[in-house]
Amino acid sequence: MRGKLLLLGSLLVLMIVLAACDEASDSYELRYGMVAGTAQNEYEAAEALKEYLEEESDGQIELTIYPDSQLGDDRQMLEQVRENELDLTLAEAGRFGIWLPRASLLGLPYIVDDFDHLSRVIHETDYGQGLQAELEEEHNWMIGATAYNGTRQTTSNRPIESLSDMEGLSLRVPEADTLLDYASYTGASPTPMAFTEVYLALETNSVDGQENPLSTIDAQAFYEVQDYLALTNHVVNDNNYVVSKEKFDEMPEDLQQILLDGLEHAAEVHTQLFYDEEAELVSKFEEEGVTVTEPDLDEFREALEEAYPKYLEDIEEGGEQYLDEIDSAR
């Protein structure tokens, strides 16, 4: 009898050891979809994430990157993450306004001063933490980290040194309410058109100017057909690393922590790439003959605040409080 007990005990110990080994050897293949192409900063940060995860997990976490909208546009990929069909993607905080109207406040012109302010709003205020909790609980979207993705500026065929210089300026903007309002409330004439038509429209003076992050102005060579760049800083773009909460919960705690640390590392790389690029591009444009101006942004900010009330109409309650929280995070 004693021999049988010893044998059973040995078998039990062996089973526990084997189970532990199986658990330790589990690997997790994560799929990461993005709109950005392989030549863009987002992809370089994704490669940094891949290297970090695979090294720190000793190969237990493998990351496959799908750039160039291979899996769809940003909204389609968010939907895929929600259904746990995709593990990771990128999204601006304001983009969540489609599902949570109060999130759209983060896309308003001059709602934040800079990326540090925006990051504090998302991660340190009740407003931002409440958004994150609802995104996780209702949509399976966990924000693993937040990165800087450039700031929108204004180019033109005449100098913009104050708000009054915007008056009557025919300004190409996308079909987005917040950017249409940027033009309208600063006194410009908003002129939506397809992005592919912008260069020719600027070259022929069909429009007087356009607005985009510096990286886009460079990539599209708008500096070739615009003599002036105003640092209007009207919209600060973020990019959030959005993880499937369901997938995250499937992972053991040690790999969860490696994933979170890896996302923070990628966001830091992502942010620094944009900061470095923007600093270099201002100098590049000046060397190309572009005159760079820095208008008084208080005038612009006050003009755009007049647009904010209409965005509160889609928020059932608490809109003014959210604005106060955003402001207090400055």
UniProtKB/TrEMBL annotation:
Subcellular location: Cell envelope
Pfam family for this entry, one: DctP
Residues involved in N-acetyl-beta-neuraminate binding: E92, R152, R172, N212
CDD domains: PBP2_TRAP_Siap
Coiled coil: none
UniProt-listed GO biological process terms: transmembrane transport
Keywords on record: Signal, Transport
Sequence intervals crossing the membrane: none
Presence of keyword Ribosomal protein: no
InterPro entries referenced in this protein's UniProt entry, alphabetically: DctP_fam, TRAP_DctP, TRAP_DctP_sf
GO cellular component terms given for this protein: outer membrane-bounded periplasmic space
Signal peptide range: 1-19
Similarity comment: family membership: Belongs to the bacterial solute-binding protein 7 family.
Name by which UniProt lists this protein: Sialic acid-binding periplasmic protein SiaP
Native source organism of the sequence: Alkalibacillus haloalkaliphilus
Species lineage: Bacteria, Bacillati, Bacillota, Bacilli, Bacillales
